[in-house]
């Protein structure tokens, strides 16, 4: 019989690793890879973990959907996302729900959002003035939250500022914690659970009221909410009321934070890397923003991919072994929690030459040393059958916002480090403050 994965077995070493991952998950994951290589294990009994890093490990995880589950591992997200959300669904239930949700994110539907995304970005930039200091990440975080709700779930919900800044944000903040802390809080039945449940209940009540209003009017609408309400499977069955609410909550939770975080990093990296801002601006300057124009911005595409490589929205993710598995001739016992990390893969020198360097040209197929990306080497939104269903929406929103910023704004970054926080959406801890040197006129307005 194959041996189990080599690794950490003593309680003291296990606690040290857990503390390291909780204190600084980014450096902790890199240190775990340095110490244990691409496959190692730790823990014992019911608390057994496997750390799997790199393309081979990623491909192993993505190919093993029938033998790996997410429900136990992502139980910490249930208080906000709900019991039937895609992110916590497995097997046949997951496949059915994903098929019903997928049409809501068809590329033609996403293309139809470009004009509204651009107009809303322009409306925000219109409020800025030269000489002003602006935290670009925070400003676009609020805008992206409102725009995401507006495009996916309608103007009425987007106009409900009390909802957006109140219970919705409290619910999202509840799961914006280190994974180990979430596991502990999930086990506490009192304060955390009660507050989170109350915040979620307020949001769910507002979603239910919106659906009821549309049904009473006889028009479910053409946005994602309407698509979810009207979706039917091969047997003519639709999503239940609970399933619709849970998908909406899950999409709200994932739909804006990843976009605004990546935008903050891209803005910072472009301004602080010689020549990148000027080159990207030259590509987009004066070009009317349409889906076709967006697709033609090759260098901007390289900038976005390189930003997502260095600062992926999914830092690490987990699965549970539903049966005993074998990887590289080593046994992974049933019940083991598997941890894999896009962040580590994206910073492995064996995968990406000079991995710590921000180099958009590495994505140019004609550049010397270009290394084609694969689903196992570039996975900012995860992979396999649980890859983020809204990834195309997020990257489109990101490109639109960056294109408008490039076309209209010049800025000077303020002194001081910009460092990451959170593993639910790797974002700039203290924002991205810049002094605006120039703000050019824009022609778009909210539509």
UniProtKB/TrEMBL annotation:
Pfam families: p450
GO function terms (MF aspect): heme binding; iron ion binding; monooxygenase activity; oxidoreductase activity, acting on paired donors, with incorporation or reduction of molecular oxygen
Binding site for heme: 388
Alphabetical list of PROSITE patterns matching this protein: CYTOCHROME_P450
Top-rank taxon, per record: Bacteria
SUPFAM superfamilies according to UniProt: Cytochrome P450
Family matches, as InterPro entries: Cyt_P450, Cyt_P450_CS, Cyt_P450_E_grp-I, Cyt_P450_sf, Cytochrome_P450_monoxygenase
Cofactor: heme
Keywords: Heme, Iron, Metal-binding, Monooxygenase, Oxidoreductase
Coiled-coil annotated residue ranges, if any: none
Family, per entry: Belongs to the cytochrome P450 family.
Name of this protein: Cytochrome P450
Source organism: Actinocorallia herbida
């Amino acid at each position: 019989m194959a041996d189990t994965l080599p690794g950490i077995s003593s309680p003291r070493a296990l606690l040290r690793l857990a503390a390291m991952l909780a204190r600084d998950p980014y450096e902790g994951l890199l240190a775990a890879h340095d110490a244990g290589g691409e496959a190692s294990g730790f823990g014992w009994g019911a608390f057994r973990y496997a750390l799997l890093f790199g393309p081979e490990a990623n491909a192993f995880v993505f190919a093993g959907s029938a033998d790996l589950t997410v429900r136990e591992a992502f139980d910490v997200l249930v208080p906000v996302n709900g019991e039937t959300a895609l992110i916590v669904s497995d097997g046949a239930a997951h496949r059915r729900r994903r098929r019903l949700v997928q049409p809501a994110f068809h590329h033609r539907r996403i293309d139809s959002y470009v004009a509204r995304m651009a107009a809303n970005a322009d409306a925000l930039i219109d409020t800025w003035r030269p000489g002003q200091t602006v935290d670009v990440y925070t400003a676009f975080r609020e805008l992206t939250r409102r725009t995401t709700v507006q495009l996916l779930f309608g103007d009425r919900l987007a106009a409900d500022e009390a909802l957006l800044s109140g219970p919705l944000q409290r619910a999202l903040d509840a799961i914006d914690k280190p994974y180990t802390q979430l596991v502990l809080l999930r086990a506490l039945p009192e304060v955390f659970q009660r507050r989170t449940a109350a915040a979620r209940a307020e949001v769910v009540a507002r979603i239910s009221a919106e659906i009821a209003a549309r049904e009473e009017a006889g028009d479910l609408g053409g946005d994602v909410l309407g698509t979810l309400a009207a979706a039917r499977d091969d047997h003519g069955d639709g999503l239940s009321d609970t399933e619709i609410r849970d998908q909406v909550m899950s999409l709200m939770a994932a739909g804006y934070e990843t976009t605004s975080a990546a935008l903050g990093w891209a803005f910072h990296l472009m301004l602080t890397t010689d020549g990148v801002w000027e080159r990207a601006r030259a590509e987009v300057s004066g070009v009317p923003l349409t889906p076709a124009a967006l697709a033609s911005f090759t260098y901007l595409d390289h900038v976005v991919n390189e930003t997502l490589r260095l600062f992926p929205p999914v830092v690490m993710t987990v699965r549970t072994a539903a049966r005993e598995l074998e990887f590289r001739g080593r046994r992974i016992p049933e019940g083991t929690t598997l941890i894999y990390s896009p962040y580590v893969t994206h910073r492995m020198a064996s995968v990406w030459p000079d991995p710590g360097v921000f180099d958009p040209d590495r994505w140019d197929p004609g550049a010397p040393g270009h290394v084609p990306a694969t689903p196992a080497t570039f996975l900012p939104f995860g992979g396999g059958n649980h890859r983020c269903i809204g990834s195309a929406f997020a990257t489109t929103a990101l490109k639109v916002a960056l294109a408008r910023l490039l076309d209209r704004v010049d800025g000077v970054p303020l002194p001081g480090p910009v460092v990451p926080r959170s593993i639910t959406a790797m974002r700039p801890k203290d924002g991205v403050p810049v002094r605006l040197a120039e703000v050019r006129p824009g022609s778009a307005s909210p539509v």
